């Protein structure tokens, strides 16, 4: 039975982290809200009182009778089932920690353009966004990239490898998630990322290597890959790039 991914049909958002894993693994899945059933099929799980364990929001994954919400939890569930994490408990726990930290970074990126409230337009909180972006570019972005760079350097399986991995020696879902964050930030903050990536050569090598993965390369070049836009998490406001 195909996995059912539920997420908004016009943005990458947090659902894209799950899409990347499913595409890289060659797993059979349906992107429900982009199909014939549309958004109402997704909203039924969010609003129907007969759903005993409703997700708080999308993305969520339906696998048979299981409904799994939260991006990191979905990937923790999928990873061992689609071969995108090691079999050992230590590797799986470490991958989950990395994913949680990655999602912390994603939240900070979102809050660049919505630092006060998600319900307000960017234009209604632009002064606060400008202040927050200054701190993000100067402190938070370098700190996150330095951590990713350090764990890539400390992974003994990366010795002599052209494309480093975050966990073990094989492609994992956290590699895909780091790729997505770098890709999104290069769209949103191209000047800041060009400067920051000079100190993160291993992160840059991972990002470049993921793009060459056979299934991922095909996906990235296809219509299934939604383009970055001004409704998603990664938004290109030049004034936030310094």
Describe the structure in brief.
The protein has about 240 residues and is an alpha+beta fold. The protein is built from 9 helices and 4 strands, in the order E-H-E-H-E-E-H-H-H-H-H-H-H. The chain folds into 2 domains: about 5-80, Glutaredoxin, CATH 3.40.30.10; about 90-240, Glutathione S-transferase Yfyf (Class Pi), Chain A, domain 2 (Up-down Bundle), CATH 1.20.1050.
Structural write-up:
With 242 residues, the chain is an alpha+beta fold. The protein has two domains: 3-82, Glutaredoxin (3-Layer(aba) Sandwich); 89-241, Glutathione S-transferase Yfyf (Class Pi), Chain A, domain 2. Helices cover 53% and strands 6% of the residues. It has helices at residues 15-25, 38-47, 71-82, 89-113, 126-154, 173-188, 190-196, 201-211, 214-220; strands at 3-6, 29-31, 60-63, 66-69. Strands 2-1-3-4 form a four-stranded mixed beta sheet, with helices on both faces. β3 (60-63) and β4 (66-69) form a beta hairpin. α6 (173-188) crosses α7 (190-196) and α6 packs across α8 (201-211). The chain is globular, with a radius of gyration of 18 Å. It starts with a strand and ends in a 22-residue tail after the last helix.
Helix content: 40-55%
- Output the radius of gyration: 18 Å
Can you identify the CATH class of the largest domain?
A: Mainly Alpha
- Strand element count: 4
CATH architectural group of the largest domain: Up-down Bundle
Widest sheet, order of strands = 2-1-3-4
In the predicted model, the low-confidence regions spanning at least 5 consecutive residues are none
Main structural class: alpha+beta
């Amino acid at each position: 039975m195909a996995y059912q991914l539920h997420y908004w049909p016009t943005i990458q958002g947090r659902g894209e982290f799950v899409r990347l894993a499913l595409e890289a693994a060659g797993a059979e899945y349906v992107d429900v809200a982009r199909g014939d059933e549309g958004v109402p099929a997704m909203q039924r799980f969010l609003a129907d009182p007969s759903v005993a364990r409703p997700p708080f929001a999308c993305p969520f994954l339906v696998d048979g009778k299981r409904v799994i919400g939260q991006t990191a939890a979905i990937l923790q569930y999928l990873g061992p089932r689609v071969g995108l994490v090691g079999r050992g408990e230590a590797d799986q726990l470490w991958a989950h920690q990395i994913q949680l930290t990655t999602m912390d970074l994603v939240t900070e990126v979102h809050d660049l353009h919505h630092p006060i409230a998600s319900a307000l337009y960017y234009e209604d909180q632009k002064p606060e966004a400008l202040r927050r972006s200054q701190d993000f570019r100067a402190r938070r972005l370098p700190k996150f990239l330095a951590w990713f760079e350090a764990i890539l350097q400390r992974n003994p399986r990366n010795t002599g490898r052209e494309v480093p991995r975050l966990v073990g020696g094989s492609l994992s879902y956290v590699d895909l998630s780091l790729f997505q964050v770098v890709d999104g930030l290069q769209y949103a903050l191209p000047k800041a990322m060009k400067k920051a990536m000079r100190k993160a050569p291993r992160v840059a090598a991972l990002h470049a290597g993921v793009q060459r993965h056979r299934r991922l390369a095909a996906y990235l070049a296809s219509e299934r890959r939604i383009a970055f836009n001004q409704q998603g998490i990664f938004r290109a406001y030049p004034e936030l790039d310094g």
